[in-house]
Amino acid sequence: MMFRYTVNPALCTGCRTCELACAFTHTQEQKPGRSRIYPIAYGPDRFVPVTCLQCDDAACVKSCLFDALKRNETTGAIELDKDRCVNCRACVAACPFGCALIDDVHDEVVKCDLCGGSPACARFCPTKALVYKRIA
Amino acid sequence: MVQMTINGKVVKATEGEMLLAVIRRQGIDVPALCDHAAVEPCGSCRMCLVEITREDWNGWKKYVTSCLYPSEDGLIVTTHTPELQEIRRNILDLYMARCPGSELIQKMGEEYGLTRTSFKTIPEGDNCIMCYACTRICEVLGRSAISAVRRGHAKVISGPFGDPPPDCIGCLSCAHICPTDVIEWHDQDGVRGIWGRTFDLIACQQCGKTIITRDFAEYLKEKRQIPADYFDICDDCKRVELARKMGGLVDQAKEVAS
């Protein structure tokens, strides 16, 4: 079984429900600033939900010198092993899309892990701009 | 697969897996200061000592550092006995004398009923417990810029001959892995200082935000073939850029459709 997370910006209304769902799922706090997904406006009333694209040949995985970033073959997500991470921020600097993030509250690197196979952002997206679906 | 007994419970483990990992998987809290998943264990902090015995040992037992002891069939492990707690308390007593400035050590001491050390506090104590986590992580990184220099009481972690380490790239891995948080560093005006050296931080070409040092980026480029332009702008600006590019494509597709 293989799953893929897809983003369709044409359907995004910029409601930011994904941001709240993400922040609450990962930090138990309703603070949009602590989310791993950010709907960014690129024009009037036009938004792109920017989040980790789980690249096939990922710069974050390549840049991690401690093998803390590994792909979970079931969910397709590149997961950050917190026990191995030493907060050197190589991944933050290397990700070409800026989607390896720094959590300022705990001063640590955080990254989208597709919620272990059931992404909260996709579940809460009212317009289905974010979809997590089975592809094979 | 091997079968062992931990605190009276029969558990299974892969052969050769270190005891500490198996113990922690059972939800048993054994303290450890020098242990980190990213580096090889070295057993220097002595906090993870456990008691082991076997049925054919006729009541003999021994204390081993669980981070360094591989799982074996038929091992009987006990993690908390009055003797073990006493050993840990004594070690912490010594650490407290050496690390008056470390919150973690003082807090751990309190957990073992030590309000203050019974030894004379080292006034010039550098708060370092000599666990080598920093040198081990630097080795994993492939730089080995720092190591222990001098011997006995004078032993300190430093660059070669006590000088600033020429191979350091200012990545801060050592500072972040340090259990007692003693490695001093600072980021100021686009310059990072650590181990008596200064490093240029790469400033984002759009907003000026700094993330890593130029030397670290060079090292990543060379060792992991990360394209050079990946480090030009910061993560915040990269996200905005991505939104702009993706949005442009969406607009194009809409135009084509209409």
Q: What structural class do you assign from the helix and strand content of chain B?
A: alpha+beta
Total beta-strand segments of chain B:
11
CATH architecture of chain A: 2-Layer Sandwich
Low confidence ranges of chain A: none
Task: Please tell me the total number of domains of chain B.
Answer: 2
Largest interface: A-B, 39 and 42 residues
Given as residue ranges, the uncertain stretches of chain B (5+ residues, pLDDT < 50) are none
- Main sheet overview of chain B: 5 strands, mixed
CATH topology of chain A: Alpha-Beta Plaits
Question: What fraction, in percent, of the residue positions of chain B are helical?
Answer: 25-40%
Strand order of the largest sheet of chain A: 1-8
The proportion of strand residues of chain A reads 25-35%
Return the average pLDDT of chain A rounded to an integer. Answer: 90
> Order of strands in the sheet with the most strands of chain B?
2-1-5-3-4
What is the molecular shape of chain A?
Answer: globular
Mean pLDDT of chain B comes to 91
Number of E-state strands of chain A: 8
Number of helix segments of chain A?
Answer: 4
Domain module count of chain A: 1
The ordered string of helix (H) and strand (E) elements of chain B is: EEHEEEHHHEEHEEEEHH
How would you explain this protein's 3D organization?
The complex is a heterodimer of chains A (136) and B (258). Chain A has 136 residues and is an alpha+beta fold. Chain A has helices spanning 17-27, 59-63, 90-94, 120-124; strands at residues 3-7, 38-43, 46-50, 69-71, 78-80, 100-103, 108-111, 130-134. Chain A has one domain: 2-Layer Sandwich (Alpha-Beta Plaits), CATH 3.30.70.20. Chain A contains four helices and eight strands; from the N terminus they run βαββαββαββαβ. In chain A, strands 1-8 form a two-stranded antiparallel sheet. A two-stranded antiparallel sheet of chain A has the order 2-3. In chain A, β2 (38-43) and β3 form a beta hairpin. Chain A is globular, with a radius of gyration of 14 Å. Chain A starts with a strand and ends with a strand. Chain B has 258 residues and is of the alpha+beta class. Chain B has helices spanning 19-25, 82-98, 103-111, 133-141, 173-177, 214-224, 235-257, and strands spanning 2-6, 9-13, 49-53, 62-65, 76-78, 147-149, 156-158, 185-188, 191-194, 197-203, 210-213. In chain B, α2 (82-98) runs antiparallel to α3. Chain B starts with a strand and ends with a helix. The model of chain B has no long low-confidence stretch (mean pLDDT 91).
